[in-house]
Write a structure and sequence with these properties.
The chain is mostly helical. Helices cover 69% and strands 0% of the residues. The chain is built from 16 helices and no strands. Helix 3 packs parallel to helix 14, helix 5 runs antiparallel to helix 12 and helix 7 packs across helix 12. The chain is globular and about 70 Å long.
Length: 462
């Protein structure tokens, strides 16, 4: 039987589709013209290194996926820590995408509700529990259907906002930001926008997912490198220009992270007397966002189910219902997301709560990426003769150089993520930092409790 290959074009679409998200545009738009410099910095020190090193790891005989890579380098305990960080990050991420969905929906009921924390929290909980109940009943949309829903909410609205931005400039409409080379790259100037690095990197999370397809390319080394060479500039241009477009149209004080995209569309369409298209655009964004969530509700649960079956979680979570859904994990997951969503009530603004969850989610994922970078270097050093269909040179020097760039990006983002941004109302900075650090510790501590459980179960089995 001939091996089924995927084309370079398909891989480019997969990489771009996994990263590009219209939801992230208002967050980075808050930081104005200088976001261009931080996008370039994040690409060089995070996006490209993670993509290249995860490709090198995936191109070996080691099984695909974070758990297998880290386990192969540092043992099963570290492998579980890595997969736990990836899973818990998703739990923290859920309220942000859910708040985006709720904010977009509120715009068609009453735009003022987008800043009503009680309304957002209620809609967030109803949406997530609704998706959880669907998964409990075994009602799963196919990968193709979910992909079409996500593409509908990403490709068309994103293309539309980019075209609207170009038209805005060509028609000489007023801009709320300075559009010049010195504004895009404000070297040597004091700017609080460095905190935007957290938001930008949050938009790049998941780039390693594309590496699982490297062994399905006809020429892995050349095709993957060329796919990255096309996809990375495309991602940077669309995300950076999309954010600039939002910043051009909306004054910084008027940008709401939750529904900034729909507000930008509203302004565009109002100027050109096309506001009747707003419900259509909003519906597409909602469909795409919900479609993108469908697989994420069940995928982390399956990962945790596997961990429980390997003895890292109590046997209670090993059970599935008659529909073969990990019902106990799903319900526990829904309860946790409900509690985390309550963060919106702890801050004076919706933007503040949204930022806390974004920064916390990013910080957890970055810790996992630090482990990935270390594993890539360690395995290249310990197993230099390992057969690799894609590698950064025969020796360790190429891998080490790329990993160092990744360590720089992750290190800076980890430090910056703890510092509350000056452009977003998060309340008392000390209180914000305490809540942030408490959340970070609270989400990692359970791992050590599960280590003890795993050891007890292993000892009882022997």
């Amino acid at each position: 039987m001939n091996k089924a290959y995927i084309s370079r074009f398909t891989l480019v679409l997969f990489i771009a589709g996994a990263i590009d998200s219209i939801r992230n545009l208002p967050t980075t738009a808050l930081f104005g013209s200088s976001l261009v410099m931080y996008y370039c910095f994040a690409a060089i020190t995070f996006l490209i290194p993670i993509a290249l090193l995860s490709a090198e790891l995936a191109a070996t005989r080691i099984g695909n996926g974070i758990y297998e890579w880290i386990k192969s380098a540092f043992g099963p305990k570290m492998g579980f820590l890595a997969i736990w960080l990836q899973w818990i990050n998703t739990m923290v991420w859920f309220p942000t995408i859910l708040s985006f969905i709720a904010g977009t929906a509120s715009y068609f009921i009453n735009p003022a509700l987008a800043t009503d924390k009680g309304f957002l929290l209620t809609l967030i909980l109803l949406t997530f529990w609704g998706l959880t109940l669907l998964n409990l009943r075994g009602i799963h949309l196919s990968t193709r259907a979910a992909s079409w829903m996500a593409l509908l909410g990403m490709v068309f609205p994103l293309s539309l906002i980019l075209l609207a931005g170009v038209w805005w400039l060509l028609s000489h409409q007023s801009s709320h930001i300075e559009l010049s080379l010195s504004a895009f790259f404000p070297f040597g100037q004091q700017h609080g926008a460095f905190s935007s690095l957290t938001a930008i990197i949050a938009g790049f999370l998941g780039i390693e997912l594309a590496s699982v397809h490297i062994n399905h390319l006809k020429n892995p080394a050349a095709d993957y490198a060329k796919s990255l060479a096309i996809a990375v500039p495309f991602i940077l241009i669309t995300m950076a220009f999309g954010a600039l477009t939002v910043a051009m149209v909306l004054a910084q004080k008027d940008i709401n992270i939750v529904n900034g995209v729909i507000e930008a569309f509203d302004n565009f369409l109002a100027v050109y007397h096309l506001r009747f298209l707003l419900p259509i655009v909003g519906l597409m964004i909602l469909i795409g966002s919900i479609g993108g969530m469908i697989s994420w509700v069940i995928s982390p649960a399956k990962g945790l189910l596997q961990a429980s079956q390997d003895g890292f979680l109590p046997p209670f979570f090993c059970k599935t219902n008659p529909h073969h859904a990990p019902n106990r994990v799903l319900l526990g997951q829904a309860i946790l997301v409900s509690l985390i969503s309550g963060a919106f009530l702890l801050f004076p603004s919706v933007n503040g709560g949204y930022w806390l969850l974004t920064a916390l989610s990013t910080e957890l994922y970055l810790l996992m990426y630090v482990m990935l970078l270390a594993a890539a270097v360690y395995l290249k050093w310990k197993k230099p003769q390992e057969t690799r269909s894609f590698q950064l040179g025969k020796g360790i020097s190429g891998t080490l150089l790329v990993a160092l760039l990744g360590f720089i990006g992750c290190g800076i983002a980890l430090i910056i993520g703890v510092i509350p941004p000056s452009d977003i109302a998060v309340g008392n900075p000390v209180r914000y930092t305490m809540i942030f650090l408490s959340g970070l510790v609270g989400f990692i501590v359970p791992v050590f409790l599960f280590y003890r459980l795993h050891r007890k179960q292993r000892n009882s089995a022997t």
